[in-house]
Design goal:
138 residues, mainly alpha, two-stranded antiparallel sheet, 4 strands, aspartic-type endopeptidase activity
Length: 138
């Protein structure tokens, strides 16, 4: 249940941000990105298929491994962000980026995916450190 709430919250924030920018309610610069992440140019059907495959693999893995149940927030952010960008790509054939980060432009979905992945990496590093510390002490 918590997973679905986090996904829904991420989708709502992302959709609201993109709508406010697209309708020019927020007067901030934005780009319509037809490529993949980090400016990789493979838009259209290839991007939709790749995103759908990655989502399916992650969701299957999530369902099969109890370790992921301990990381509901991280996976909720990743799934919510990926679904948000996937839906926009299906509807508009591109993704609206409006948050500047250096020379790149991002959106709320991108940030959610990045935050979720960062949480997983940190958790993995802490777990590895704790396990190695236990082996040394024994």
């Amino acid at each position: 249940m918590r997973l679905w709430l986090i996904i829904a919250g991420t989708l709502l924030l992302d959709a609201a941000g993109k709508a406010l920018v697209r309708k020019q309610i927020l007067d901030i610069p934005f780009v319509e990105n037809s490529g993949l992440a980090f400016g990789i140019q493979a838009g259209g059907l290839a991007a939709i298929i790749l995103t759908a495959v990655i989502l399916a693999v992650l969701f299957f893995y999530y369902q099969q491994n109890k370790i992921f149940l301990k990381n509901v927030i991280a996976f909720g952010l990743i799934f919510g962000g990926a679904i948000g960008n996937l839906l926009e790509r299906i509807i508009f054939r591109n993704v609206t980026d409006f948050i500047p980060l250096g020379k790149a432009m991002l959106n709320i979905a991108d940030l959610a995916i990045f935050l979720g992945l960062t949480m997983l990496v940190v958790k993995l590093m802490v777990t590895k450190f704790e396990n190695s510390k236990l082996k040394i002490e024994n």
